[in-house]
Write a structure and sequence with these properties.
With 221 residues, the protein is an alpha/beta fold. Helix content is 38%, strand content 18%. Helix 1 runs parallel beside helix 6.
């Protein structure tokens, strides 16, 4: 039986940096024999958690899935049925997009149980899922460290790992924000030589890393 991977693009742009890396991940997964379900979240109508608490009511039948039935519900059902999951987001103003955060709320909060035993928390969904995060960002590695991007982004990785057992991250830094031509934008502070170096040298490595992630996640036991 083919393994299944869900790949979700949380960028409003369907053919730029984030999407390019996610498509590479999809190609890697397909080459490994997996069935790929790819979706652009911008095409779906959904919100973040509505705090209805249906997933926390005594005797609920949610099974770890969000009870709200909008465009995101079939995607959440596909994730639960999959063997691997890759989420991609550009970094806007030091964090992931609103779409990404809404997805995380709807995916993880229903799995969280407020019950506990002697071992600690009990999950509402016992699911092993190999997960990956792909982030694209305009900032350089130096700026990434200076403004603590790793600290800001780390909680999502930890949460996915805690709920599903495995999570890895690809940070693509120094991407071309106004690719291919900056001349039409007010961006005099941008070091175009540095941008070109990243595009010529690091970007191909990022694409290969994304491809490898897709292949690796669907071959994990």
């Amino acid at each position: 039986m083919k393994k299944k991977i869900v790949i979700l693009n949380a960028s409003p742009r369907k053919d730029k940096n984030t999407a390019t890396l996610l498509r590479e991940a999809a190609r890697g997964a397909e080459e490994a024999g997996a069935e790929v379900q790819y979706a652009d979240l911008i095409d779906l109508t959904f919100t973040g958690c509505r705090s209805c608490m249906a997933c926390k009511r005594t005797g609920n039948q949610c099974g770890g899935l969000c009870a709200v039935r909008d465009d995101l519900r079939p995607v959440l059902e596909s994730i639960v049925a999959a063997d691997a999951l890759i989420l991609g987001s550009p970094i806007y103003w030091h964090n992931t997009t609103g779409m990404f955060r809404n997805l995380i709320e709807r995916l993880l909060f229903p799995i969280l149980s407020y019950n506990a035993d002697e071992r600690g928390a009990i999950k509402n969904l016992d699911k092993k899922l190999a997960t990956g995060l792909i982030y694209t960002m305009n900032v350089t590695p130096k700026y990434y460290e200076q403004f603590n991007y790793g600290v800001i982004l780390e909680p999502v990785r930890r949460q996915l790992e805690a709920f599903f057992g495995h999570c890895e991250v690809l940070n693509a830094q120094g991407t071309w924000q106004f690719y291919p031509d900056y001349s039409n934008y007010d961006a005099a502070a941008v070091d175009l030589e540095e941008k070109q170096w990243y595009r010529d040298n690091q970007w191909p490595r990022d694409q290969q890393s994304a491809h490898d992630m897709g292949r690796r996640l669907v071959t994990m036991e």
